[in-house]
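Homework help board

Subject: predicted structure for assignment chain

Our instructor gave us this sequence and asked us to write out the predicted structure in C-alpha cell form, then describe one feature. I got the C-alpha cells but I'm not sure how to describe them. Can anyone check?
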Amino acid sequence: MTDETKIVPVDDYLKVGLHIGTKFRTKAMAPFIFKVRPDGLSVLNVQKIDERIGIAAKFLTHYEAKDILIICRRENGWRAVELFSKLTGIKSYTGRYPPGILTNTQLEDFIEVKLILVTDPFPDKNIVEDAAKIGIPVIALCDTNNEIQNTDLVVPCNNKGKKSLGLIFWVFTKEYLKAKGQLAKDEDFTYKIDDFSPE
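My C-alpha cell output:
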C-alpha cells in the first residue's frame, strides 16, 4: 500500500509511535498485531490502523455534531480531544465521565446522543457499558492490551501516547470538517498534528 492510498504517510504514523503497542496482548486484539519485538512490545499492523482510522473518520461524518460524544479519561488525550471538540462542535468529556448522563433522565446534565467515541475502553468502561445498555454504537481506540466487549468499531493504535492520539484526532477533525463542508480542500486545514499533542 503506497502513501497515496493512506490517510497520512506511513512515516507520520511511525514518527508518533502509533503502531507501538504494549507487552500485554489480548486475544481480541491479536488480529491487529503485526509482530512482537525482541523487547516484548507488540507492533500493530500499520495498514490495519490506517484502514480503521479511515472507517472511523467516515463513520463520524454520518452524524451531526450534537449526536456524538467523545470520552477521554486518560490525561494524555485531553489536549487532542478538547481541540477536536472545539473545532467540530462535538461534545466531549475529559477526565471522569459523569455517571448516568446517558441513562438517567432525571439528571440535570442528561444528554441523548447517537454515537460515542472512547480513547480507551478500559478507563472509559463505564460509558461503554452505559452505551451498551441503551444501544448506542461505540467507536473505541484500542491498544494491544484492550478487551473489546460492547465496542462496535475498533481502531487499533497506541492509545496512551500524546502524539499518537494527537495524530488520530487531527485526522478525525480534518475529515469531519471536510465532510461537513467547512473545508474546501485539505490545504484549508491550517492546524498541524503538533497542535493536537502538547510537548
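Reply (TA_rk): Your C-alpha cells look well-formed. For the description, you could write something like this. The chain has five helices and seven strands. That's the kind of observation they're looking for.
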